[in-house]
Amino acid sequence: MTLIPHPAEATVYAPDIPRSFEPSRASWQSPTPLTVSVLLHAPAYLDVVPAGARKPRAMQGGVGRETGEPAHGQVARLSQWDFGLTTGVFRLLRIAEQAEVPVAVALDAQGCAAMPGLAEAVAARAGEIVVRGSAANAILSANMSAGEERAYVEETTAVVSQTTGTTPVGWFGPERASTPRTTSVLADAGFRWIGDWPLDEAPVQLEGAAAGLTALPFALDTEDMFALYTRGLPFVEYERMLRATVDQLIEDAAIVGPRFLGLSWFGWVLGQACFADVAERTLAYLADRSDVRIVLPSTLA
Fold first, then answer.
1. 3-class SS at 171?
2. Quick one: which of 24, 17, 9 has its CA closest to 197?
3. pLDDT digits (tens, 9 = 90+) for 132-146
């Protein structure tokens, strides 16, 4: 493979980062060639989205390839997402514990409020709790007013914090949705990192109104839901892709400096029995490498 440097005129698609930022910033420093953070997602899917809430135009899951917003009571899709809360996330937590790998878990306000036992059980085993907005299908939108967006962040954070007994410092928006205001709202609310943007292979410290917030790139291409459902990648190929990504990033680190890989896994996807051995072998492979460190996201922000 030939490593291609970023062209000087490249546009970084992220608010609060000047267009000239990417080529001029200093290399990220890390004690190992590759740093990995694992983020497990346990989002709750709403059968009926409250009036006034903003919904995504399409969602994954269920039977067939239709990704449109499901009608009320579409059992296959709803129960598949619920599987992630009852079984999937706990299977992935057990795999991480066996591999002695620290993981963060992203919870939303709907799941925490409706299932306080879920919040308590996850908080007792996760190394870090991350706020995942209101619900899987109740997202941030540019159509919100500034007050509505601030209330969305403050109210969902309060629910997750109270039910888990933690003070989250990380944010991952449902469907990676955000507005041009989101980073400054999160910085004002005391968050230290956001995982929505797969904009680089290293943490990026934001500036301006979002100063104090770090963008940790949880890559879209290595996310299980995107790879297996959106792209339809066979799970055997998914495991090969993860292994190849790790190997390539370590090789690249010798040229461009330490690399970061954010692994983003959903309880209702990789937590399925048919996929779980991919998580098991991948974490074991990472844990056995001396040139890889696995840390919680908050330690990098």
1. strand
2. 17
3. 999 998 999 888 999
